[in-house]
Structures are given as structure tokens and as C-alpha cells.
Amino acid sequence: MRLPADSHVHSEFSWDTGGPDSAARGTMEASCHRAARIGLPGLFFTEHLDLEDAWFSDPEDFDEHEAHLLGEDGIVTVPRFEADGYLASIQRCRAAVPALWIGTGLEVGQPHLRLEAAGRQLDLDHFDRILGSLHTLEFEGRRAEPNTLFRRLPADEVVRRYLAEIPALVAGDEPFSVVTHLDYAVRYWPEDEIGPFDPRAFEREFRAAMEAIAESGRALEMNTRRLWSWMPQWWAESGGRRVSLGSDSHSPAALAHGFPEAVAMIEAYGFRPGRHPEDLWTR
Ligand SMILES: [Zn+2]
Ligand SMILES: [Zn+2]
User: Recorded E.C. number(s) (predicted)?
Assistant: First the structure.
């Protein structure tokens, strides 16, 4: 089986791995060596770029190594993305593992609100792939991640609000080509309290979000942390023509997680690879 490039990989240059000075140091290089070992032809290092200024969180939603990012007022401040160090590290990895195709990238949180400001801080043309992610939703004048909101709103309301914001995410012409993890809110679904998540209860909302993404001409990521066969099915039926495959790995061990199964799944809904492993799959 010919695997596509892993289109969503984090390294020590993403703030939520702990940063370049933490135990995550060397993650980029280790991911490249692991990719070569498992026969992955390529990957994109899509580091987090989050410029939120009123993002609040509950302390329990942050791991111990991230606790210092949360102020006493509950507002989160993440360290600045170190573009120079990142690009230098990419060059070192390309030299160290020449058989591997290594692409640059960013995962921009709330690009519809923040990418313009990001473009003033950073030359976005340096990046081969820019992912757009919805990580926070507006709540009482500030923004919060779904995990924090599940403590404040009924669970189905969180998922509905998440999907309802997707059309705004893709309405503009900000330069991101892929929408990531459309099931992001579902990661935190309070299963222990209310039972397993049933996607059919939100089919209308998922399809409406997918139609908006398809109309914008962007691709939808199949996030392989959790594989859902309804995701490529509804995407194809909503007019979606392009997909990427992304493991969203934050450590080398999670690289290309579930890729063989994901490839079989997207092929079943008519998606086919491009000429190069780093190309999006199309139908
Ligand atoms: Zn992350
Ligand atoms: Zn993300």
C-alpha cells in the first residue's frame, strides 16, 4: 500500500508539546527517523500558531507541563512560534533524512480571526501547507475550548455551536488550504456522563459545515486520531473533492497513526492519490 504524507505533525516547535527547551526537544528529528523506518514517504510539520487574546480555560484542561501558560484570571497565553529555529531544524532534518519528503506548515487556530495578524508577524509564503483549525468558540465575550465549555453548556449545544462556526471559518480568503479535525469538539464529549457520541444526531449540522468548506474550495482533513467512515462519506456527498490525511501527532510514536485503515476508507468513497505523496487526495 502506498501511504500518503502525514499532513498534520507537531514537533518541539509547537507550544503544547512543551516547547524547544522541554523533553520534546528532538521530536522533529525523531519523527523523521521514525517516518523513514515505517515507510512513510513524507510529512508536513504543521506547528501551532495561536494568537488568541481572550482565551480562557479551566486549570484541569491543562497538563502539568502547560500549567504556567494559564494566568490567575484563567486567560491562556501561549509562547510565540519560533519560526527561525523551526526553519533551521527543518533544514537539518532534510539533510539527515534525505529520502523523506519534509514539508513546512502551520496549524493556525481560528484563522478567520487571526491569520491576518499572523501574516504581519510571519511570512506565510515560507510554509508549504497551512491548516485552519477551530479550537475555541465564543462564550460570554471571550473564547474557550470545547473541553472547558462542556462544563458550562449542554453537550449537544457545544457540538452544535462548534459546527455552526465553520461557515465563518471558511468564508474569507485567508490562505489556508485544509480544515482540520471537524470532530474536534467530539474529542471531549462527556461520554461517562451521557453515553457515547452519536454522529447521526448531528448529521444535518456536519453536512452544512462540510458544504461550506467544499464551497470555499478547501480540503477536509481526515484526522486519523479517530477514524469515522461517515466523515469521508458525508464529505463526498456534500461536494467535498479533496482530503488530506493527518495523524495530529505530538510525539514520534503517533506518526501516521491509523493510516492504512484511513487509506482504505477514503478509497472506498472514491478519493484517489495525486502524483506525489504530499499531494492532497481528490475525487
Ligand atoms: Zn496540539
Ligand atoms: Zn488542532
Answer: 3.1.3.15
